[in-house]
């Protein structure tokens, strides 16, 4: 019987194309980065540690990423994509009333943060102050959060009677408020129940919408 064919890491590769093997190694490195950055922290993690966790040699790390910061960016994109998806799915049907959609989006967002503490550690804390490139990625995600919230809220806003109000700036303020609530909740080790935190976020959103309606 012929021995199984192995790659340089001692893993079977018979039947797998080189591109597939590279994608698999990249996936393992992203998973290792998510775990390491989300538990030990980005600054406490080395390429050697990441390679050991992913089961790949260092040369394969540099096959996919230029350095650990490059991996951090990819991990950040993945965890924030999960956050955006949670908000989108949680907001529910387009024909639902605004209270139902906002509460659903907030519940899904905060539940994800509670269920996987790696997500907020990476998205809220490890990403800060790394480099200008990473700072730009943070701003891009902030813009994406504003975009998805704009899609959610704009159908329920009528700004025709006060055109000086910039809808995007208002929603940016709401996003910032929800982020601060989430960060404080994480730093307090999730002491408040999810429902209470959702109620706090909902109150902020509802207050702004009510104020806009009263300003007509």
Automatic annotation (TrEMBL):
Which ranges carry the HTH tetR-type domain? 23-83
List the stretches of this chain annotated as a DNA-binding region: 46-65
Pfam families associated with the record: TetR_N
Show the SUPFAM superfamilies listed in the entry: Homeodomain-like, Tetracyclin repressor-like, C-terminal domain
Say if the entry is tagged with keyword DNA-binding: yes
Q: Does the record bear DNA-binding in its keywords?
A: yes
Q: Which InterPro entries match?
A: Homeodomain-like_sf (IPR009057), HTH-type_TetR-like_transc_reg (IPR050109), HTH_TetR (IPR001647), Tet_transcr_reg_TetR-rel_C_sf (IPR036271)
Entry protein name:
TetR/AcrR family transcriptional regulator
